[in-house]
Structures are given as C-alpha cells and as structure tokens.
Amino acid sequence: MRAAWDGIDAAKVWDAHAHLVGTGDSGSGIAVNPAMESLLDPAQYARRLFFLNAGCAHDAPGSVDRAYVERMRNLLDGMPGTKLLLFAFDRTYGEDGKPDLEHTAFHVPDAYARDTARAHPGIFEWVASVHPYAPDALERLEQAKRDGVRAVKWLPAAMGIDPASPRCDSFYAFLEKNDLPLISHAGEERAVLGRDAHDYGNPLRLRRPLDAGVRVGLGVDGSASNDSGHMLAEGRQAMLLQRVALGASALTAEEALWIATRGGAAVLRREDIGALAPGMAADFVGVRLDRLAFAGAQSDPLAALVFCAPASVDLSVINGQVVIEGGRLLTVDLPAVIARHNAIAGGLLGRVEV
Ligand SMILES: [Zn+2]
Q1: What is the 130 CA–ligand 1 centroid distance (Å)?
Q2: Which of 23, 274, 294, 346 lies in disulfide reach of 262, CB 3.0 to 4.6 Å?
Q3: Concatenated DSSP letters of 178-222
Q4: Single pTM value for the model
Q5: What's 306's DSSP letter?
Q6: Ligand 1 mean position to 63 CA, how many Å?
Q7: Is 33 exposed, middle or buried (0-12, 13-18, 19+ CB in 10 A)?
Q8: For residue 25, what are the CA distances in angstroms to 45, 60, 65, 109?
Q9: CA 200 to centroid of ligand 1, rounded, Å
C-alpha cells in the first residue's frame, strides 16, 4: 500500500466522501430507522451490517459510534496530512416541509459531524447535510457556515429532494454566495433507501444549481462494484446520453473528452493536471491507431478515442513514471491483485447474508 503513495504529497489529498455513521450509542444524536435493526427486513438489516462492517464497528456493542471514528482515524495512519471530509446525513422531509421519519434511513446530525471534526482537527473536516425543504434550512446553513463547514451533502433519491425544484432556489443562492459546494448523490440510489425517489437522482436535475452558479460534485453508488471506472467509456456514455436526450449534435466527442480531462481538473481546482503543457504533471496515455478497434476510424483520431473507447492503452505515464508500456502494466503483479480483489469481494458478500 505504501508504494502507491510514492511521489504523492499526502497533505494534498482529501477524501471528499466519508459518510459518518454509528448507532447513537455515544450520545451523538445519530438515529437509525428501526427497520435497519430488524431481521424482519433482511435487506435493510444487511445494509446496516454493511455500513458498520465498513467501519469495523459491528463488534463493538455499546461503543459503535466511537469505534467507527477510531476506524476512520486508523485508515489515515501512514498518510500524514491527508484529511477526510466527514458527512452528516439529514432526515427525509415531505413536500409539506415536515420530517418524514418512516422514510428516513438514518439521521446523522450536523453537530455530531462538526464536533467530531473539531475533536481531530488535523485529520477531519466536516460536511453538513441540510434538507432544502426544512423550514429552518437557511438558518442551519448560516450556522454551518459559521461553524467552518466545507460543503453540503444530499442524497436526493433517499431524502426526497428534487434538485430541479424552484423551492431549492434560495438554498442555491446561499451556496453560491458563500462558495459552498453541493455534493450530491446521482443515479439510482442503492446504498441508502428512504424515499426511493430514484428519478430525483437524475443528474440532469442538477442543471438548476449549476445555472445558479453552485459548484456541484457528484457521488454515485458504483465505481467499486458495477462499472469498470474506464474514463473513455464514461466519456462515451456521457456523450451518447446527451445525444439521446437532446439530439445528435448535443455533445461532440471533443467536448466529452474535454469534460473528462480539463473539466475534471477544473472541478478539482487543479492547475497542474488535465492538459499537456510545460509545467503540468506528466500524465498522459498513448493508443496505437493501427489497432483493430480503430480500423476505419482514422480520419479523426481524437473522436475515435471517444467513439471507439479502447479497453486498454498501449502507453501510460503517470507523473513522469512509465506505468504501461507496450500494453503491459509494469508496476503491479496484476493476476495476483485480481485474485485478491475477487477473494475480498466474495468474502464481503458472504458476510452480509442473513
Ligand atoms: Zn455519499
């Protein structure tokens, strides 16, 4: 593991998606939906076990909250300077602006995330979760801002938030004015149930906060389990989805590639990656155009890169280090890593069966 950090300044790395969970046994104010404690609802029970397993806190009865925070701290050992953004998690609210406890999977109060971060200032920052339909939403945002919050977190499908609704506008205006990013789950929500309003996870609904000038970050269930994390394939899919929704000229291959490279760097406010230029990190890949996958697609190699989305590259240089040459990974014993990954994934599935 330590070799993976060679050449990386850990102090510049923040994990921007760490859900703070627990059971409330420390007086944290965390509340868990009774369905998640009951064997009568095995899917919910399994989710609770999954979260607690992830925090290695399932075997610490009476001190689960504390064990989870300890586990987060232990994960950062050996990564001096790296920080975690701890996420609060607000309740589900109904259209009437009242808390909907039946459809609230769990509730992690802002104050708990704030106080946990304050107790460990070198390693944690905190992120509030404020439902925009709550009558006191703006007051809570003001309070969070005073308390040094770094961002606001939503799970629209679980919490019953329509990001395209005009009733979120004053919320967005606050975020824009105070330069607070909105981190939102998108896509089908399987990690946390609740309202199960999956259409609210449609990323196109986030056009409204974007138009209001809010910086929006997306989190999804998935890259660990149901896609390959293939950047060109994701770029191709983004392009095709835009064309399905908005017509054949909605997004060019060049624009899709821009989003995947320069756009990603801009979201991260990184000025050292995303482009090939003097002074930038030497991160680049090379793909041979005489591959079968590119046969007949020579007229515009850049477009072909997105349209053909080759499954692998022939050359990859990361921060100046050659990692793939002649299509072969030089830095890792790949068969051993694949076997270990499959063994761990299999073990995880075995543990959540009830
Ligand atoms: Zn999340």
Answers
A1: 14
A2: 274
A3: TT--EEEE-SS--SS-SS--GGGG-GGGGHHHHHTT--EEEE-S-
A4: 0.68
A5: H
A6: 23
A7: buried
A8: 18, 10, 6, 14
A9: 15
Q: How far is the CA of 39 from the centre of ligand 1 (A)?
A: 25
Question: What is d(CA 209, CA 81) in angstroms, rounded to the nearest whole number?
Answer: 32
Q: How far apart are CA 138 and CA 161, in angstroms?
A: 15
Q: Where are the beta strands (DSSP E) in the chain?
A: 14-19, 31-32, 83-87, 106-107, 124-127, 152-154, 182-185, 216-219, 284-286, 315-318, 321-325, 328-329
Nearest to 130 by CA among 163, 100, 91: 91
Model confidence pLDDT, tens digit, residues 3-38:
777 778 888 888 888 899 888 888 889 988 877 766
- Using N-to-C axis directions, what is the helix angle for 137-146 and 169-177, rounded to 10°? 10
Distance 91 CA to ligand 1 centre (A): 14
Total residue length of the chain? 354
Question: Does the pLDDT at position 49 exceed 70?
Answer: no
Question: Which residues lie below 8 Å from residue 225, measured CB to CB, with a gap of 6+?
Answer: none
Rounded Cα–Cα distance for residues 219 and 237 (Å): 17
